[in-house]
Amino acid sequence: MNEHDARWKPYWFHVNRGDMDAMISHFGVNITDMAIPALLLAGVGIPLGFSVDHMLPGFSLGFLLAGLWVTWSAHRLARRTGARTVTSQVFGINVPSSTAFAISIMLPVYQRTHSLSASWAAGAAAVVWMGIFKLASAPFTRYIRKLIPKPAVMTVFAAAMYSYLSRTIVVRLFSSPLLGIIALTLVLCGVFAKIPLTKWSLSPFFVAWMVVLVVGLTTGDIHISWSGMHFTAPWHMPPKFMAYLMGDISYFSVIVPMSVYAILQDLASVEAAQQVGDEYSVGQTLLMDGVCSIVIGVSGGIIPTVMYAVHPSYKHLGARISYHFWVPIVMLLVVMAGLSMPAIDLFPWSLRAAVIAYVSIGVGRTAIRNIDHKYVNAFLLGIIIPGAYLIQSTMQESLAALKIHLSPHVSQVLDKAIYWDPISGMANGFLLLVLVITAISVSLIDRKFLAATLWSLFAALSAWLGLMNAPRFGWGEAPDYALAWLVSAVILLLVWVAAPKEFAANRDSPADEQISNST
To answer: How many angstroms separate the CA atoms of 121 and 354, rounded?
Structure first.
C-alpha cells in the first residue's frame, strides 16, 4: 500500500514495532526526568517522599491531556493527507526548566522559609506562569518566527538541550560503568548498525532494558524501591498557592528566559516535524502546551513541559500515532498506584543515558540541518554560553548540600578562584543571552545592522529589568550590563553609518567565502 492512500484509516490503538520502541523510550525518559527536581532537592533537605507524593503527581494530568491532544492531532493529519507515516508530536518534560526551577526558585525559597509547602507552591506557580507566557505567545507565532532568526531559534534549542543533557543525563551513562557500557553497546548495535539482537526482531531498546535490568539486579547495581501500592491523587494544590503565584514575579529572571526557551523549543519542534513531512500548527502547539502547563501547576505539579524537537528521530524509529496515546495512560496509572519510585528504579540512569545519547544525535542533526552553513560561526558561539550556567548551578547545589551560605565573603573567594562574578553574569538568564548574541551575530552576517542594533537595545532593557545578567527580576538590577549593551548598540549604529554601501549590500561574510572556496 502506498504511503498516501485516502482509503487507509489511521487508528490510535494500533501499535507497531516502532511505536513499541518509542513507548519504551518515551516512558523511560519521562518517568526518570520526573524525578530529577525531586532528587536535586533531596540533596538539600527536602524529603524525597514529600516530593514524590505532593510535587510530582500533577504532571501526570497534564501529560495525559497532552497525549490525547497530540494523538488526536496526528490522527486528524493522517486522515486529511492519507499518509501512513504520520508520527505524533513528541511531548514531555522540560528538563532545563525543571532543573532551573528547582535550583533557582524552589531551593532559595526553602532556604529562606524552611517550609516544604512554600517551596512546593513556588515551583508550581512557576509552571503556571510559564503556561501563561505560552498562551500569550500563541496568537503571535507568525511574528515571532519573523522577528527571531531561525538560526537563533535552533541555537537556543541546541544550547539548552546539549548543556543539560551533558550535565544531568549523558554524564550518568557511567554512573555504573558496567551497565552503561552494556546499554550503549546494545543500542549502537541495534540502532546504528541495525543488527537484529534476537531472532524475534525485538526492539533494541527493549533488549537493552532487559539485559541491563538482569545484570543490574544480579550485581546489586540496581535497587528497586518498594513500599507497597497506595492511592496517590494526581492533584494536590499547594497551600497559599495564589499568594505564591503573585510572589513568583520576583523570579521572572528565571521564569521568563525559560519560557522563551520553551516557546522556541515548540517552534523548533514544528520545524523538525515539517522536515520529515508532518505539518503541525505552531499556534495550536503553543496553545496546547500552555494549557497543559497551567493544568500541571494548578494540580500542584512542579514539572514544566515542552514539545520535543526530536520528531525525526521518533519517525526514524518507526513511531506513528499510538505511542503517545498509551504512554500517558500508563504514567497516570503508575502515579495513582503510588508506584512512581519503583518505576523510576526500573529505568536506571545507565539505560536511559544510552537511549538519550541516540536521541540527542537526532537533536543535533535537526539543529544543523536547519542552519545555513554561513551561520555556523553564530551557532558555535551560542552553544558555548551555557557552560557558565552549568558551573553556577553545580556550585549552588554543592554549597547548599554543605550548608554554606553564598555570603559576600564566599562570593569573593569564588571570584578569585573561578571568576564567579562573570560566570554569574553570563549564567543568569543564559538562554536569553544565547538568543541575543546569536541573533546579533546572524544579523551582522546578513549585514542587517539595524536589526543587530535593536537586539542590543533589547539586551540592554532585559539586563536593566534583570531578565538576564542578573539573579532577580526588578528595576535597575544589572546597570553595568545594561550600559554595556547600550554602548554595543551605539557601536553597531556607527559601523552601519560608516560602512560603505557596497560592503553593506554584500551578504556573504569573508568566512563564508573561505568555506565556499574550500568546498
So the answer is: 34
Contact 306, 160 (CB under 8 A): no
For cell 550556567, name the residue.
Answer: 389
The C-alpha atoms of residue 261 and residue 241 are separated, in whole angstroms, by: 25
**8 Å CB contact between 67 and 322:** no
Instruction: Quickly count: other Cβ atoms within 10 Å of residue 358's Cβ.
Output: 19
Give the contacts of 129 (CB within 8 A, at least 6 positions apart).
245, 248, 252, 255, 259, 297
Is the CB of residue 263 less than 8 Å from the CB of residue 134? Answer: yes
Contact 445, 378 (CB under 8 A): yes
Cell numbers at 410, concatenated: 564566599
> Would strands 305-308 and 90-93 be described as parallel, antiparallel, or unpaired?
antiparallel
Q: Which residues contact 290 (CB under 8 A, 6 or more apart)?
A: 131, 132, 133, 134, 135, 138
pLDDT at 239 over 90: no
Distance CA 460, CA 489 (A): 9
Per DSSP, the three-state class of 307 is: strand
Distance of CA 234 to the CA centre of its chain: 23
Mean pLDDT of the chain: 84
**Rounded to whole angstroms, how far apart are CA atoms 193 and 228?**
41
What's the whole-model pTM score? 0.83
Q: How many Å apart are CA 410 and CA 404, to the nearest integer?
A: 9
424-446 average pLDDT score: 92
DSSP result, 344-359: HHHS-HHHHHHHHHHH
Give the 3-state secondary structure of residue 197. coil
Cα–Cα distance between 408 and 396 in angstroms, integer? 14
Q: For the segment 349-399, what is each residue's pLDDT rounded down to a tens digit?
A: 777 777 666 666 666 676 777 788 899 999 989 988 888 887 887 787 778
Burial class of residue 214, CB neighbours in 10 A (0-12, 13-18, 19+): exposed
DSSP state of 237: P
Q: Cell 560603505 belongs to which residue?
A: 500
- Whether the CB-CB separation of 124 and 241 falls below 8 Å is answered with yes
The position carrying cell 531578565 is 467
CA torsion sign, 259 to 263 to 264 to 266? positive
Give one DSSP letter per residue of 379-396, joined into a string.
HHHHTTTTHHHHHHHHHH
**Do 378 and 435 form a contact (C-beta atoms < 8 A)?**
no
